[in-house]
């Protein structure tokens, strides 16, 4: 199932790209990014961020969330 990582999902509310985004293409008032974490493709233009193609971020399992809380 296609899914973007949490930082990519939150990009619609932010102005600056998160650290895992790499710029693939830049034109006047438009930029294309790919996320190194989830392989999503995001587009930034004057209207803000848009996820063009969701990546393959694995959903967090119950065991993962427990180990994160105890760390």
List the helices and strands and how they pair.
Blueprint: H1 6-9, E1 21-27, E2 30-35, E3 41-45, E4 48-53, H2 62-70
Antiparallel strand pairs: 1-2, 2-3, 3-4
- Structural class comes to alpha+beta
Estimate the global geometry from the Cα principal axes: globular
Largest sheet: 4 strands, antiparallel
Total helices: the number is 2
Euclidean distance between termini CA atoms: 28 Å
Order of helices and strands: HEEEEH
Low-confidence stretches: 64-71
Tell me the Rg in angstroms.
Answer: 14 Å
Number of strands: 4
- Share of β-strand residues: 25-35%
Give the rounded overall mean pLDDT. 83
Spatial ordering of strands, largest sheet? 1-2-3-4
What percent of residues adopt helix (DSSP H or I)? 10-25%
Number of domains: 1
Distinctive features:
18% helix; 4 strands; 2 helices; 71 residues; alpha+beta; four-stranded antiparallel β-sheet; globular
